Every structure is written in C-alpha cells, then in structure tokens.
Amino acid sequence: MSTSRELKELVREKYGDVARRSEQQNDGSCGCGGECCSSESGTDMMAEEYSNLSGYVAAADLGLGCGLPTEFAQIRPGDVVIDLGSGAGNDAFVARSLVGETGRVIGIDLTEAMLERANRNVQTLGFTNVEFRLGDIEDMPIEDSVADVVVSNCVMNLVPDKQKAFAETFRILKQGGHFSISDIVLTGILPENIRSAAVMYAGCVSGAQQKDEYLETIKKAGFVNVAIQKEKKIILPDNIVLQYLPQKELDAFRKDGAGIYSITVYAEKP
User: Cβ of 178: how many Cβ atoms within 10 Å?
Assistant: First the structure.
C-alpha cells in the first residue's frame, strides 16, 4: 500500500464490509471497524458511549468512533453542521437533535454501502433536514462557506492527505465557524508491524499522525484557537498486539513510552 488511491480503496472495502454486517454482528465492535476487537477480550477500546445523548439512533451506531465530537461542538439551533465520514449517520443524527428543525445536517462519506445504510435510517426516521452525500474529504461535494460547525469522528486519520482534508474543512466553514473533531494520534514511535498492517490501518492506528504534527497540520490550514478538548490514552490488550508483534518486541514497545491517544480537537476559522 503506497498510493493514495490504494489506501482509499482499502478504507472503502473495510468500511463497506462493516456497513453490510447486521446490527448484531456489529455489537461490541470498536473504533477499529471491529477488526482489532476480540470476542475473547470483550474490549471496546476506542468507541464512546452514545446511548445517553439526545438524538441517538441505535441503528446508526456501528461503534466506529473514538470520541464524542458533538459533545464539545457548541452546536446551536439553526446551525448548518457537516459531518465528515458520517458512516451510518450516528453523529449526524445527534447533531440534528441540536440544530433542531430550523437547522441542517449534511454527512459526507467515501463508502457507498455506508451511505445506503444512512439513507435507509433517514427514510425510517422521516427526517427532512438531514442528507448524506458520497464524497472524498480531500475534495468535498460542498460549496464554500456553508457550515457553521464541522464534526468528524475517527476519520481524518484514514485520509492520506490530511493537509488537503483540513484545507477543505477550512473552505466549507463560514467565517467564524469552527470544528470539533475526534481522532487517533500517536506519541513516540509505533512499531512498524502495527503501522504497516492493512487491517490496523483501516482500524485507525497506522494512518494516524504524531500528535504535534496533527495539530500543526490544522494550524497550517489557517485555523486559529486550536485546542484539545479531550484526550484519552488507548491501551491495546496484549492478546491483540501479539497478533502483530512477538512478545520480545511487545515488551520493548511497552517500555519505550510510545502511545496511542484519542483526542477531540477544536479550532476556528477566522
């Protein structure tokens, strides 16, 4: 895997598979698209609890996130909210409960199977102010200066050109608009076996940037008042990591202080 197209095809394939599974098969999945979860460990390593949030729709929750961006997004009634990598609609439906009938929510996703599932949810719920569009976050099917708020949940790490994706986010926001994005970042050096494993890439880890680099990417796109709203260290259980590393390398990995973190980042367009 070396080209942008190959990486996007991998993500499309992996998340298309997730979208086609039944809700029962997705129970207990995590922010790794279920691939790095283990039925033996029963560990939900990245996904956050949504069920107590207003607007939560269980049929749209595939357990693929790594945070609660809508919790920190300062969404107001009447806002236009754009959800990047909207999946089956989980964050979009929560956002809809906050914008109310006078607001609007647009979800963008790369995977056709996800959009099909999201649109079925919209039809079932009868919502008229939520729509989902097929699109690439590096080249969004959205006009300039449309959004009051952008949210995204464990998606930017999957985008090959993150600088371009944040530039696009800047473009679609109104002046004075802001984003709240949950994502996976790294501190220190992750073992190459984990970074290069295709299944781990689709599971949010190998595509992640160093935390400082990630924040700098946001600033380079023109955003100001960049701040981490929430940060949580992700501990991968030994029985999962040992699928990719021998015990000796795992011991060294644990000792060297390298870390995987879920962060929720806020930033504003001047």
Answer: 19
